Amino acid sequence: MHIHAYEKLWLALSIVLILALIGTVTYGAVGPGVAMVADTQQTVDSGALDEDERFSEPRVEQVGENEYEAYVVAYQFAFEPSPIVVPANSTVTLHVTSRDVIHGFEVAGTNANTMVVPGEVSEITVETDEPAEYGIVCNEYCGAGHHVMEGKLHVVS
Ligand code: CUA
């Protein structure tokens, strides 16, 4: 009986110590000074896009009234999703990453343009007005199929 009671005491003390340690670490992280708190949006494991919640299913998501987020994957030699379908008169933030090598992402005939680097997430925000169909071109040489690498952006009513 005595041993059992001691075990319980030690168990309780261990828990207290663990909680105290967690408390110290947590408190330390929010203390004064300079702290980078959010840079994970900027990177991604290009070899594990299938397990990444943003890019496992390339898609367009509505996040507010007239606000959309698009998750786009570039690879040799296409873009996904294709077409990217977004409503007219909306604001769309495109998060674009690459599955393999460096690509470009340019919405032809517009100023929407970014380089797409494996391991990084390029974010560009565009505003749409009239319904229209645009081509998306890759403007970084990425291999034998570079010149046929294209996507579509459909602005729909
Ligand atoms: Cu992809 Cu050039």
UniProtKB/TrEMBL annotation:
Residues 55-157 form the Cytochrome oxidase subunit II copper A binding domain. InterPro entries: Ba3_CcO_II_C, CcO_II-like_C, Copper_CuA, Cupredoxin, NosZ/Cyto_c_oxidase_sub2. Gene3D superfamilies: Cupredoxins - blue copper proteins (2.60.40.420). GO terms for molecular function: copper ion binding; cytochrome-c oxidase activity. Keywords: Copper, Metal-binding. The keyword Metal-binding applies. It is found in: Cell envelope. Its main location: other. Signal peptide: none annotated. Pfam families: COX2. GO terms for cellular component: membrane. PANTHER family: CYTOCHROME C OXIDASE SUBUNIT II, NITROUS-OXIDE REDUCTASE. This is Cytochrome C oxidase subunit II. It comes from Halorubrum hochstenium ATCC 700873. The lineage of its organism: Archaea, Methanobacteriati, Methanobacteriota, Stenosarchaea group, Halobacteria.
